[in-house]
Amino acid sequence: MTAILGISAFYHDSAAALVIDGEIIAAAQEERFTRKKHDPDFPKGAISYCLREAGLGPEDLDFVAFYDKPLTKFERLLETYLAYVPRGFPSFRLAMPLWLKDKLHMRRMIRQGLGGSTRARVVFTDHHESHAASAFFPSPYEQAAILTLDGVGEWSTTTLGVGRGNRIELTDQIQFPHSLGLLYSTFTYYCGFKVNSGEYKLMGLAPYGRPIYRDLILEKLMDLKPDGSFWLNMDYFNYCQGLTMTGRRFHDIFGGPPRSPESLLDQRHMDLAASIQAVTEEVMLRIGRHLHERTGMRHLVLAGGVALNCVANGKLLRDGCFDDLWIQPAAGDAGGALGTALFVWHQLLDRPRTCDLIHDTQRGSFLGPKFENDEIAMFLQTSGATGERFDDESELLEHVAGLLTAGKVVGWFHGRMEFGPRALGARSILGDPRSPLMQATMNLKIKFRESFRPFAPCVLQELAHEWFEMRPEQESPYMLLVAGVREQHRTPIDPEQARIMQDDPDLRNRVNVVRSQVPAITHVDYSARLQTIDAGRNPRFHRLLEKFYLQTGCPILVNTSFNVRGEPIVCTPHDAYRCFLATDMDALVLEDYVIQKGEGAPEVDQVERQQYLAQFQLD
Ligand SMILES: [Fe+2]
Asked: What pLDDT is attached to residue 91?
């Protein structure tokens, strides 16, 4: 037996993954255990979970693989600093103590973090090799073109390559500071959202705008070649030398200083969002076409933070140069932990790879902890809550579907926790997408935020193509593609609604205009960020959707992550129950137990609720 532990840490979203004899046994992000969103620290909690899952101790590990090369990264920081002397000094001074204290002594830190009892060989793989490995090795393809795109690793920000059998080969790269990820993050920052987490908000804002700055971006900010390679004009960016992303020249051409977070969004911000989204899509389409021409491959796999841009992924797929795409669900740096472990097994140890041509080998990304009914029973007992236990699954699902049909919001906790940023039906909050009030209700009463974005739908795989513009066999099991709601499910809007859609300054009013039979998940441009649910990956969740479909004729549910604003997705029954109590969720399903408000749940203490919510920073 060969046990390989993969680790990503010290930048953003630490994680651990365990691969035994090539099989993915477990993977999880550290934030789920420490309850600190995007926790970058050494992933102690995630590592001990992975080992526990396999019944191993640190002494049983053969390899510990780290997802990037700290020395090369350090060299990049030094070189960047030297190139911008003396302007880069403030950021250099901030970064250095951490590097000198921790990051340059990674081997020692890893051994210490594992309790000193491991004899495992410690291996460092290249950041983009880790991303590429996470995209290709679990994919359902014998061979595929590979594209990785992110902010930056050591030097690379974009790599192109090919995977065949058990090998990957990266052939081309674009290097720092020229980075599509950092370009997108620059606009995220400029529009007043948080870098490294607010990118999806910017993407959600884009449908409200017109891409009127697209040409300006292409003319001033970057030199984009026909093959998709690009240079950024660094005169406009501040991220090499400063503590901010943008400087005066950037503000001059886009009409003012950055928006302050939480302030009003105006048309300019929407247009900026639409413009950078259009540019991102253009870059990805050009690279995709070039990569197809170069490699002749029918399939493409993607990873890196930019691969979470599901709107661009949808465009790339519909462009048609590739028959299909597979995107690593943990596309950001957390997924590097899985990639580096798989890289060691296949590439370094040259072990064969068997791919699952139907479902991939990512196991629905349900790679985290699971809790049995008796653990839940014990938890409920100690916390003084009473849940109704359903021994018959069909009755349970019938009951839950009934609650959803009645407009209730249900916390759904089942099976192993998801690996990656999206809730995929193991730690999800569910609602009825047909309700015109559901978007506002779920945001205000559960997430404690106001949002201009619709929720994401999950839909029965078998019926997805009837509701959304996709091919019958097309899957989106990891919520990484966007497709339009089909014409026949759209509803006409009257002139007054059209006016609201056009110019109401409050975007919530725009998103709440009913435009389809499933308004809670339909964006203003009729797009939806959908997840298809198949019986293979999550059979119980599939059966729940079938019940809901039988009761309503609608094969779709709202699926949002089980957390409040700024909180990591819940991991344990305790996390879930606390979140349930702190919000106006109507019911909580913990495996076979259903707990409903007012029925056995203790009276909610308002002070406790406020304290709980105050822990989490705005995301
Ligand atoms: Fe990355």
From this structure: 66
Mean pLDDT of 3-22: 94
The Cα–Cα gap between 250 and 222 comes to: 12
> How far away, in angstroms, is 472 Cα from ligand 1 center?
33
> How many angstroms is it from 369 CA to the middle of ligand 1?
25
Contact 614, 465 (CB under 8 A): no
Question: What's the sign of the alpha-carbon dihedral 384, 386, 392, 398?
Answer: negative
Query: Is 125's pLDDT higher than 80?
Result: yes
Helix (H) or strand (E) holding 381: helix 373-383
Q: Using alpha carbons only, give the angle 523, 525, 530 rounded to the nearest 5 degrees.
A: 50
**Separation of 67 CA from ligand 1 center, angstroms?**
9
CA 526–ligand 1 middle distance (angstroms): 31
Residue 154, classed as helix, strand or coil, is: coil
pLDDT number for residue 101? 63
Predicted local confidence at residue 153, as pLDDT: 81
162 band by pLDDT with thresholds 50, 70 and 90: very high
Residue 153 C-alpha to ligand 1 middle, in angstroms? 5
What spacing in Å lies between the alpha carbon of 106 and ligand 1's midpoint? 18
| Mean confidence (pLDDT) of the chain | 91
The predicted structure's pLDDT at residue 167: 97
Query: Which neighbouring-strand residues pair with 430?
Result: 410, 559
Q: Which residue's structure tokens are 């503590």?
A: 243
Task: State the distance from the centre of ligand 1 to the C-alpha of 333, rounded, in angstroms.
Answer: 5
Do you know the residue count of the chain?
619
Distance 598 CA to ligand 1 centre (A): 45
Q: What is the mean pLDDT of residues 122-139?
A: 96
Find the 236 Cα to ligand 1 centroid distance in Å.
23
Residue 601 has pLDDT above 60, yes or no: no
Residue written as tokens 């559960």?
Answer: 446
The Cα angle at residue 320 between residues 318 and 325, in degrees rounded to 5: 75
**CB-based contact 336:134 (threshold 8 Å):** yes
* Structure-token pair, residue 304: 């890196």
d(CA 332, CA 104): 23
- Of all helices (H) and strands (E), which one includes residue 258? none
Q: Is the pLDDT of residue 421 over 70?
A: yes
Q: Quick one: which of 301, 367, 316, 261 has its CA closest to 132?
A: 301
Nearest to 202 by CA among 257, 258, 143, 152: 258
The reply to whether the predicted model has a pTM over 0.90 is yes
SS3 228: coil
Instruction: Kindly tell me if the per-residue pLDDT of 240 is higher than 80.
Output: no
